[in-house]
Amino acid sequence: MTTPAPGAAVVTGAAGGLGRAIAAALHADGWRVLLTDLDADAVAAAAAPLGGWSRPLDVRDEGACAAVAAEAARGMPGGLGLWVNNAGILVTGPSWEHDATTRQRVVEVNALGAITGTLSALEVMRAQGHGHVLNVVSLAGLVAAPGETVYSASKHALLAFSLGTLADLRMAGVRGVHVSCLCPDGIWTPMLHDRLDDPGALASFTGSMLAPERVAARAVRLARRPRPVVTLPRWRGAQVRLLDAFPRLALALTPVVRAAGRAGQRRQLRRVGPDPNRPRL
């Protein structure tokens, strides 16, 4: 189905990278976008050309998420139309190399933060009778990602929560509120700019590196036409689901995955030159 005309949209982690690209694409599509991020100054700068609506937000803070949802609902006559949980952090390397603080932070931001944002948005949307939560997951939420185990675990949790919550809404008779998961391949954002020589990040480079604008464009289409799960590119979604269905095969192919990831890192390094912080494709 197609959603109603754009209204207020909230994007978390919107100071840069994919979040900023999604906010810009939604703004161009007619949404009034409230950009949020932990970095108040950076998100205000990102919001300036997009209507200037921004708020600092720690997605782990339930009260702050609820306040942002309420503000967004008041910001447009149609209320809160869309909430995009984009904020996330990546750590790489074997799981036993991450200390407890690091593991907790990844899970708190990527999983619990998105869960908190989802529930804050749903509180408003259920009362309105309409709305859409779009959770940015990852292909790492569909299959175990060597070298990104804690990150992958947090994304698996978010995917399961999202689909289960969507089913709960339907079982409760709520038809006008949607939950979608966008699962993209590796994206050339600051999250990966310094990972070109990181052996722990090989899984993120096994496919074709995506431009943030391409993922943002798909997010806008998904916002208009909700679907439970969308992978980008589609063929990569089919590939990782096959590996997830046959874990012994996935383990046997680990050397192939490693080689493909290293080749992807070298390919990306040739594209961007010696300074990996230059965000071009």
Automatic annotation (TrEMBL):
<dbReference type="InterPro" id="IPR002347">
    <property type="entry name" value="SDR_fam"/>
</dbReference>
<keyword id="KW-0560">Oxidoreductase</keyword>
<dbReference type="GO" id="GO:0016020">
    <property type="term" value="C:membrane"/>
</dbReference>
<dbReference type="GO" id="GO:0016491">
    <property type="term" value="F:oxidoreductase activity"/>
</dbReference>
<protein>
    <submittedName>
        <fullName>Short-chain dehydrogenase</fullName>
    </submittedName>
</protein>
<dbReference type="InterPro" id="IPR036291">
    <property type="entry name" value="NAD(P)-bd_dom_sf"/>
</dbReference>
<dbReference type="Pfam" id="PF00106">
    <property type="entry name" value="adh_short"/>
</dbReference>
<comment type="similarity">
    <text>Belongs to the short-chain dehydrogenases/reductases (SDR) family.</text>
</comment>
